[in-house]
Design goal:
single chain; 85 residues; alpha+beta; Alpha-Beta Plaits; 4-stranded antiparallel beta sheet; 4 strands; 31% helix; 38% strand
Length: 85
């Protein structure tokens, strides 16, 4: 049986939390198969909130450590989906 895990991160204040979030994403880069990030942007403003969607790969036991480190960052909310096939 295989599992695919999709993790969504809401970064409430990118200016404040982007650095710590990026450190965790770099630390666990070996688990990240795909990464998509976006935030609202227009001519005058760049949103302080942002969303990152990740597809995890590798050892599912390591996913738990990654998820614990991410939720320990203040101002970052995580949601996840698992597909087992």
């Amino acid at each position: 049986m295989k599992e695919t895990r999709i993790v969504g991160l809401l970064i409430r204040d990118r200016i404040k939390e982007a650095g710590r979030t990026q450190l965790m994403l770099s630390k666990y880069a070996h688990l990240i198969k795909s990464r998509l990030g976006f935030h609202e942007l227009n001519e005058n403003t760049c949103s302080r909130a942002g969303v990152v969607i990740l597809q995890l790969t590798g050892n599912p036991q390591e996913w738990q450590a990654f998820e614990e480190d991410i939720v320990a960052i203040g101002g970052v909310e995580m949601q996840k989906m698992s597909f087992i096939y």
